[in-house]
Write a structure and sequence with these properties.
The chain is of the alpha+beta class. It is about 30% helix and about 20% strand. The strands form three sheets. A six-stranded mixed β-sheet has the order 6-13-12-9-7-8. This is Condensation domain-containing protein.
Length: about 375
């Protein structure tokens, strides 16, 4: 696989610790986690100091610093002291050895090892690892020729997306900016209720809504790819690149009812899950949706802990990359885009349209798509040239 300059940037994460942090124990935990997960290879651990005002710039620069794939290392920890009792641990790893779900594993391991090094000798190390479950792999999983045939049926040229203000569709990974929005407890709860009404999950509802919005803008067929997790019970607690970018084919008709589209989305996802462990070559579809349910922040002995789950590394992929992080009582959406292809104002408008649609669905979940989008989003006035 060939990499462009923006493909050399990694997946970042920032851990905030406030209180009497045992710095040697934390540094030791970083090195130990690297040894626990050989896929990370030689992990670099460094330490620095800065001020609270300068920390955001330092974090942004560290997230955007490229990796040398030939020389390594492909993972690095940077421990930043921003004031008395205030520590920020920046972690960045290349996608060749890490994925978004690996963040949960990394934090649990760090907390466990930090506890064992910082706690009194008589203290027992708590076990935070959930037991593997066969529910991780749907019944009927098939990694044989059936999987090859399944993905071959979906190997088609993705549709050209129609988005407000879109001037071009960038190929691959390039420079990016991001527009973020957070659906709080009320909106998130309404989505949960709407999903239950339609016999779907929140992910399925979000995917169906995104497809409906793309149809409303004028996109004739699906331009979508999904980041699909490929973990098994055996790899559930491993750090690594257990994600595949796969095409997503269902696309709503202009007069389709929303419940029917949700059923089509759900059926396709259930079919895809059977073959997720034998994925195809990465899809080059121009609109990408990444979705994950994040774990709770683990406890770090004697200090208050918080996590920046979606530190931005300054990259974008294709025409639009929608990243969703589901925290249960909230849903954070980040819309990544290339400013050479579409303006921030237009992406902010897309974010607003998506939010309005996600508000309209709970109010009338059994409506026609045309009725939902007519009241929640204006029709796009511009198409790719």
């Amino acid at each position: 696989m060939s990499y462009g300059p923006f493909d050399l940037r990694g997946i970042p994460l920032a851990l905030h610790l406030n209180g009497p942090v045992d710095v040697p124990a934390l540094l030791g935990a970083c090195a130990a986690v690297g040894r626990l997960h050989p896929v990370l290879g030689r992990v670099r651990v460094t330490r620095t100091e800065t001020t609270p005002e300068r920390y955001p710039g330092l974090a942004e620069a560290e997230a955007a610093r490229p990796f040398d794939l030939d020389r390594g290392p492909l993972a690095r920890f940077t421990l930043v002291t921003v004031g008395p009792g205030r520590v920020r641990l920046l972690f960045v790893a290349h996608p060749a050895v890490f994925d978004a779900a690996s963040k949960d594993v990394l934090l649990r391991e760090l907390a466990d090892v930090y506890f064992s090094q910082a706690a009194p000798p008589c203290a027992a190390v708590p076990s935070r690892r959930p037991a593997p479950s066969r529910a991780d792999v749907p019944s009927g999983t098939d990694a044989s020729g059936d999987a090859e045939a399944f993905w071959a049926e979906r190997d088609r040229e993705p549709a050209e997306p129609v988005l407000p203000g879109l001037r071009a569709v960038p190929d691959g990974t390039g420079p990016g900016e991001i527009v973020e929005m957070v659906l709080g407890a009320a909106e998130s709860g309404a989505l949960t209720e709407a999903a239950a009404t339609l016999g779907a999950t929140r992910f399925e509802l979000l995917l169906a809504a995104l497809g409906a919005l793309l149809r409303h803008y004028g996109t004739a067929a699906s331009p979508l790819a999904l980041d699909l997790g490929t973990r098994t019970p055996r790899t559930r607690e491993r750090i690594g690149p257990f994600t595949a970018r796969v095409p997503f084919v269902p696309h709503p008709g202009p007069e389709e009812e929303f419940p029917a589209h949700v059923r089509a989305v759900r059926a396709e996802l259930r079919a895809m899950y059977r073959f997720r462990h034998a994925p195809p070559e990465p899809s080059r579809a121009p609109v990408l949706l990444s979705y994950r349910r994040r774990a709770e922040v683990p406890e770090f002995a004697g200090v208050a802990a918080g996590v920046e789950w979606t530190v931005f590394n300054g990259t974008s992929r294709g025409a639009l990359h929608v990243q969703a992080v589901d925290a249960g009582r909230s849903l954070t959406l980040g819309l990544r885009f290339n400013p050479a292809a579409i303006d921030r104002e237009d992406v902010s408008g897309i974010a607003g349209d998506l939010r309005a649609l996600l508000r309209a669905v709970p109010a009338a979940p059994r409506s026609r798509i045309a009725d939902l989008t007519r009241t929640s989003a204006p029709v796009a006035e511009s198409v790719p040239g």
